[in-house]
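Standup notes
- DV: blocked on the single-chain target, sequence here:
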Amino acid sequence: MSGQILVVDDLSLGRMILRARLSSACYHALLAADATSALAMARAHLPDLILLDNHLPDMLGVDLCKTLRSDPLTCDIPVILVTADHTRETRLQALRAGADDVLPKPLDEALLMARVRALMRRHAQQRELREQAAPALRHGMAEGAIGYSARPQVALICNASDHKPGAGCCAMQVEPPLHHVALSLPEVMKLEPTDRLPDVFLLAPEVARRDGLNLVTDLASRRTTRRVPVVVTLPVGMEGLAAMAFDLGAEEVLHMPLDPEEVRLRLDMLLARKQQADTLRHALGTGLDLAARDPLTGLFNRRHAMAQLREMVESGAAPFALLMIDLDYFKRINDEFGHTAGDEVLVGVTHRMRETLRTDDLLARYGGEEFLLVLPRTGAVEARRIAARLCDRIEKAPYPLQGGKVLLKLTASIGFSVQDVSPSGPTGEAIRNIIDHADQALRRAKRSGRNRIAFRTTEAAPRATA
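- DV (later): unblocked, structure below
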């Protein structure tokens, strides 16, 4: 089964018909005849979607929707309210209660199934994001990540002829305006990831009439716009395309003439979901970034450095240099002053090295007091110059310990190798050779008296000056 749907209807015939429709689409239907049993089943099974009739023997569906939204267990389950009451007030009450959509009876089967597919697709994506981001959220890694100080922005996609300051599609002229900016289709297609992207695209009815609904798929497939939800406004006479619009990826479908209050309720819900998804993505990104970093120094860890080095080798990004940096006599610091003092020194050294490096250089903690530095587009002469600057920076000033009572002097030894041409052999072997050459040079530098720089094929020599 591809999903579990709770059907809530006091009429057994209505439940049987919906179960048959859902089963034919390979959904598993749970059946409830009243609000009390529906609420218990929703909490016990956590279905992927709820089809809710508004007229139940013990409670209105609108009120049950409010209860579902107030419960942390069920608050994110999509709800479609089904009603024979076609009045505007009932539709608005359902949206205010948190229903994702309101469908009139008798049900249009094509529209119903398209709406079910769209909502379940969105619910599955949200659930996957939430599960992936859970570790970061549990540990507070995403706190304050997204302030949303900027007002959410709705962009109207309209014909170029209608695109002028303060103007838009005539059919969209309501007060206050539903959109904040109007864009022509060519302007939308030229958007770059660095641009301030809108939070929602609102497709004007004349664009749907002229260009059809392929634009929805196009926007969803582009890297720049794929995470901006699309709301389709269908002109009079094209209402039958609503099911197709949902299947093509539209988040909402509006019909002309617009009800401004209903549209704002739908847009508010959509913007809230978008904000939640962005927060989850940010938390996920934060968690992944922290998993690639050393918790003490904040530098990338050895695993991440190896992955980046593999990418450079496989892409043939030569020349590049690899430096192995080892702090001299570091064990004495831990033995004499304790590991806490040693940690303070490692953090201080990290800060000094970061100030010396270029923005695209990759510095990682390799292990203990040893660091690995990858210098893209760098030959032997420049690598030695950077190594000398690092040694000078590390040695330049003493490190205060025990509240400044002890001023510790520290030096470093560096061994480096350079990959001048793209390796012809296996990637793994090429990486091992590069690291081995740098490590051999480091051992040579330390044997020569420490506070030295050595190249992989040369004798260790006193540090060169920048």
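- Follow-up: The radius of gyration is 31 Å.
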